[in-house]
Amino acid sequence: MTTTTADGKRWGLTATAVSSLSLCPPSLVVGVNRRSRLGEVIKDVPAFAVNILGTQHREVAEVFAGHVAGVRGTSRFDHGDWRPNAEGVPILGGAPASFLCKVDDIVERTTHLLLIGAVTGAHISEEESNLLIYFSQNFSAVSPQG
After folding, report:
1. Which one, 58, 85, 131, 146, has least CB within 10 Å?
2. Which has the closest alpha carbon to 79: 55, 54, 59, 49?
């Protein structure tokens, strides 16, 4: 999940809890730990992106999950092919899919914020790619063929 604050600073994290909320209107929900750096600023952003990662993006996932020592803050965006969309939100080039969302609501529950986004745009790659998931504390590949 990526976003940009009003001062132009880019933020991002590897979200391990992302789900479709509804089809009509299309919306997503993303869980963000309220103690994360992004959790501290998320209430001030108007839009965010969810970039679905392929197995070729494992390093990006590790960096944005905070698993690479010494790589923090905006230096995370030195890993991967990041480009701002029209709203300035970073989109990962080569991602199997990307969804741009307008922040619709933020629900506070225990340790997390549930960020509800109204999908305002989507890009689905024409190239077939194995998807990267996080399961049982490990990154794994999932084939689109099942």
Report:
1. 146
2. 59
Q: Which H or E run contains 40?
A: helix 37-41
In sequence order, which residues have a C-beta less than 8 Å from that of residue 21 and are 6 or more positions away?
A: 27, 28, 29, 116
Backbone region of residue 120 per phi and psi (left: phi > 0; alpha: psi in -120 to 50; beta: other values): alpha
**Beta strands 131-135; 138-142: pairing state:** antiparallel
Residue 63 burial by Cβ neighbours in a 10 Å radius (0-12, 13-18, 19+)? buried
Return d(Cα 107, Cα 139) in angstroms, integer: 27
Tokens of 132: 């990267």
Q: What does the pLDDT read at residue 146?
A: 55
pTM metric for this prediction: 0.92
Helix (H, G, I), strand (E, B), or coil: what is residue 111? coil
Those residues of the chain that have pLDDT short of 70 are 144-146
What backbone torsions phi and psi does residue 93 show, to the nearest 5 degrees?
-65, 140
- Predicted local distance difference test score (pLDDT) of residue 107: 96
134 three-state secondary structure: strand
